[in-house]
């Protein structure tokens, strides 16, 4: 359950590699010190750009070694001219680096603009799709309403067509009572009839049905033929005629029984 951590640890959780301290002897300039500005994540591990930078530093050191001494006017003029040429080369190289950096930034900007345009197009497409869906829903609702209105108008026209001349027709009571969907069986509230009003008048109210004494009195008033049922045994069918012949129905029943067996 215990753990230790040292200054020189080496593991998966280590973030930056350890860089030991160093001491430079006087009078010496190690070439390795040119890489002191490079740190982990910023130049290390080195890539192509770092290698080119190291090569340019080496070329500059070699160029500085070839500069003439400042002991005469001709050497000073020659040295100044060489330094101006080197300065022009460095400026040209710097301009190339700036152009490359601008190109990279331009490419990044193009990608960002392209991505933003794609997101905007996707958002516009979603909005158009939602707008189209709403229009389709409104269109379907309007079509349903038109169809229902059309069916209603057609029914009205069919009803008017039955009596084009506008003649008054007498009420056919027999026809109304034959049709169970007519006014006597199913009255409509739109013509002034409300079947739910005064519904208590349809209830049967009788003293003989509401009390036990009334039921006994009602039972006593009934005849014996209602309370005492008499069942008479059926008489057997006559299968033989008066002259002694078997009836055709009896023969047919016997034949049917044989076929059934």
TrEMBL record:
The record's annotation in Pfam families points to: CFAP91
* Predominant subcellular localization, coarse grouping: cytoplasm
Q: Which InterPro entries match?
A: CFAP91, CFAP91_dom
Annotated Gene Ontology cellular components are: axoneme
Q: Which domain of life is it from?
A: Eukaryota
Keyword annotations for this protein, in alphabetical order, are:
Cell projection, Cytoplasm, Cytoskeleton
What are the subcellular locations of this protein?
Cytoplasm, Cytoskeleton, Cilium axoneme
Q: Where is the CFAP91 domain?
A: 4-156
Entry similarity comment? Belongs to the CFAP91 family.
This chain belongs to the protein called Cilia- and flagella-associated protein 91
What organism is the protein native to? Probosciger aterrimus
Lineage runs: Eukaryota, Metazoa, Chordata, Craniata, Vertebrata
